[in-house]
Amino acid sequence: MPPFPPPGPRLLGPLLAELRLTRRWSQQRIAAELCAASGVPTLTRHEVSRWERQLRLPGDFWLGWLAVVLDVPGELLAEAAARSRGGGTSATARGGSRSRAALLALAQRWLADPTSTALGGPAFGWPAGRTPAGWTAGPGMIGAGPADAGPAAEMTGSGGAAADGDDLAELRRWDDLLGGADLAGHAARRLRRAARTLSGAGPGTRRRLLPVLAEAAQLSGWLAADAGDLTGGLDAYRLALQAAVAAGDPALGGHVLGSASHLLAGAGDAEGALALARTGYAGARGAASPGLRALLLHRVALAAALGGRQRAARQALAAAGRLTGPEPGLEPAWLYWLDDGELAAMTGRTLVALGRPGPAAPLLRPAAQGRDRPRRAAVYGAWLARGHLQLGEVEQACAVAGDALLDAVRSGSPGRSASSPTYAGGSPRTATNRRCGATPRSSRRPAPTCRPGRRPHPDRPAPGRPGRRPARRADMATGRDRRGPTSVVA
Q1: What's the whole-number mean pLDDT along residues 375-402?
Q2: Fewest Cβ atoms nearer than 10 Å: which of 88, 254, 342, 455?
Q3: pTM of the complete model
């Protein structure tokens, strides 16, 4: 995923959707309110939908009445409209906007009517020809795809719902060590297989398979996002929410929206991330375990901090801190990875986003130094490096960023490499490179060169040393040591 951006002006479409969702209004309701306030009876929900998807922008007349109806400053909407006309910079503005709008609309419908049969059912529709992680489906059905199940069978084996659940648990644990670049294809095949199995199942079997399909789609979305497939991730999350609703599992539905919120936050869409996180928490709060409630509050806090809403972020952090955290025996199996250390690191990450690096560093450091879980170390190491930069500790930032980059390469997670401040866009990159002498040459070979006070690895030539081997690019791309074909997580 791209690096988390600093707070900035918002786009009008996501802003309108978020303001509407916070009031739990439908597009029909806001259209009726606008008609009543303005005295113009011709506005429909279809026009509101076009505004939120940024297919069309309201003029000054409707911007004024939107400010009245939504009870927000007119300047806020005017600035968002101006930025939308000038073109946004978020990844969802460049791609995935239709998938984003569809997921936001589905989330709002779920919150308004959590048991609605219109949200899920025997067939779950995809946009024509588009499915997670790049595999091809026929128009309107996720079950379509390559007929052979050979690769999927190799990965998942055969059997009923219990065997499928065991396969998912194994894939989740691989996710602790490897990244989306290695696992997204496996997860997509696993999801395709679950969809095919469900389509031919009877009513009793279908009830057992729906939770498996929901979990498979959630994991596929997570891995597709980590592999850089924004649209595939959003589409998979939409399927996961539909399946969770059909399975009668609001806790899993909230987790799906929390995961999608994390994806949008990483893509630079803080407003969309906040809308999904708040919707997920509101919809799952009554059925969620203590750990899941804490996790969803952390999703709200991070999205609010990245969007410049410091008060909302502090309130969410405080609410998460009042919870007891994960409780053994009460947490769902798919939340096995959440522990007190992870929640502490999430708190540190949000504090960095809020510009409070001092208390964040001790919370982030244990997770950033955990070499046994390279993906987690890469994520929180990047945030710890940002914190050091905010404190003016450039040498420490260089060392931590270098370790985070190596962890990202070892785990096969290209999105984590991009999130390091050493190579990410913006002032952190400039400051780090200028003061430490880092010279990034390619995102495909992110070997750090700013490691003050450390001896170079015996197999890694120092910058500028003659005799550098040309094969080094291939070595870094595969994560393998030149001494032998070792594992990428060694």
Answers
A1: 91
A2: 455
A3: 0.65
